[in-house]
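Appendix B, record 7
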Amino acid sequence: MKAYLKVKISPGMFPHENAVWMEDYTGTGTSGFFGKRFIKDGRLEVEVLEEREETIWVRLPGSTLEVPGDKGYITVRKEDLKYLTPDQISFIESLEEASETVESWPEWKRNILG
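Structure tokens (predicted):
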């Protein structure tokens, strides 16, 4: 299931990425570089793998750089995640597709939209 993890974001080394800092369930911070397409409204898109009482094990959309032996997984606090329903995900994806379509239009056609 897709969810979004609360993170702190700063510019990445390349234009298509951001540096991201996050906390695990113990409050220990870790960071890594993730594509901008995985970051929305101050949150990093993750895949929920296992949910426990107060923690959730998630797969990151890549791997962090500071954790030796990291395989792209982290256990986080439930309150740091925001879940989306399938309808919300579909709606967001349709907006993203429409946005890409409009951006690919010639300038004169975009001007019609105001």
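Remarks on this record: Residues 2-83 form one domain. The first strand starts at residue 2 and ends at 6.
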